[in-house]
Amino acid sequence: MKTKFLEITGKAKEVILRYPMVLFMALLTSVGAIYLYETTRSRNDSFTCYMFTICSGLGISLMFALKILSQRIGKRYLLELAGVIGLIGLFFILPGNKKDFTEVYGYIIAVAFILSHLLVSFVAFLNKDRELNFWQYNKNLFVNIVLTAIFTGVLTAGVELAILAIDKLFDFQFNDRIYFDVFFFLAIAGSCLIFLIFNEKGLPNLEKDSKYPVVLKFFTQFILIPLLCIYAVILYFYSLKILINWELPRGWVSYLILAYSIVGILALLLVHPLKEDHTRSWVKVFSRLFYYTVIPLVILLFVAIFTRLLEYGYTEPRYFVLLLAVWLTSLIVYFIFIKKPSIKFIPVSLFIFGAFSLVFPYLNAFSVAKRSQKSELMKLLKENNLLTNNKIDFNKKISDAAINKMASQFEFLIVRKQESFLLNLVDPTMRGKLSKDFEEPYYWAINNSLRNSFTYADKHSGTLAYEQLTLESETDVVNIGNYQYLIKFQSYSQESKKINGDLFLIDNKTEKIKVILNSKEEVDFTPAIDKLFKNNIRTGRTVKLKEVSVESDLGKYHIKIIFPSVTKQKDSGNIYYNDALFLIKEK
Prior knowledge:
By secondary structure, the protein is an alpha+beta fold.
């Protein structure tokens, strides 16, 4: 037992000395995740920690890639310094508060994570022609990831059960947070340590030639390739249906084609060493035919993409789908026409395409999407004859469908900091009104402002995106009376405030508003809000009231919520509002 313990601690010590930066990043990510869980329920100022945790998490794969590269070319400290500078740069590129964090930053983070993992797969083999070593390296990484997942799952479950047993058997009465803290630590830092122990000395062990795993062969032959066959049959039948009915493909077919292609490429990579084995003729046939089977599907993919692009223009998701289609086309051309293709082309080319989508001037995903949606907005305005002297004429007739589409484009461009472009389309009297919506660019608020601004909004032409009712206060001045405390809050958020030693939690979801006092007493304002809408449902789409408010008792307090405006979707029941006021007084 002692020998085993010394052996395990010895390996752990070797790993810590060999991969200090990787483990440091994992530790920072664990601490960040624990801190976020501890503070999210009681505070709303932890957004900077979110960004810090994201950058640290990205640093795990980045530092591992740089460590592997240093084992090939040396210059370890220089590479690690460059990695740290890159992560610090990303941290300062990301916004410092929640209000400024938009889906654009989400795309940047997602692509950056993909690129960092792709870098791990090929960074040590850029100047090497040893195809088999490259395959062995990635195969061993794949196996180690699977083993790490299994070991971490068992370890985490075992430790959690041990804590539970001690708690229940010895009446320690642990706080429930300990289970989440242990989970985050073991799932992040623990799994990273286990993965590095499996990798042993790194590159020398990972690229070492070894016997093809029987489990991997079974997995590829009896799981991945049958899945591919099922996908192929479905997609080819769908293509036949399109030809027979002569109809445009549905949008989600793009994701099925991409799934088929990615699973197929994974299967090709897994069976790569077997294609030269004459006893495995099925592997050779599969390797030769796969890219030919993808050709008609990629054509269908391009048709599906351009159907949406021509109708709605570019957005970042459509840009990325198109980029993946172009990447698949490059793979088809490369592996069909190059006599001795290298499988390194797959991760390297995907990395180049991904980096292109983020940083290439003028043609990156964000520049293309902004230009496209500006063009789509101008096209919409011209088609509906809404421009007079290059300004939107709100006295002209417009359909509901056009208003909904315009609101969607306004929201898209506001989120991407194109306010000046939009304000130049309206006269000075409208700029002040729209500027308020720019502060919190919710679709429903923008839609409502545009709808109310048009004198002749044709509510019967076109197709409604959805039915909704808005209750709007007639006054901007709020009389707080004898209320002692005021809290301002938004939809889609959860607020916690401590007043006189009492903790008020505003559980604020799209379909309800609930207030919880000291985690014991609660009041649900949803029925009162529903009653407000029910009393005004036949008055019109937008109803002006003297005051839009609901109130109730909660413990020793009386609570009142005042809305400048609140909108409810009739189909989903979701409610939306902005800058709501939460008034509290002791009874």
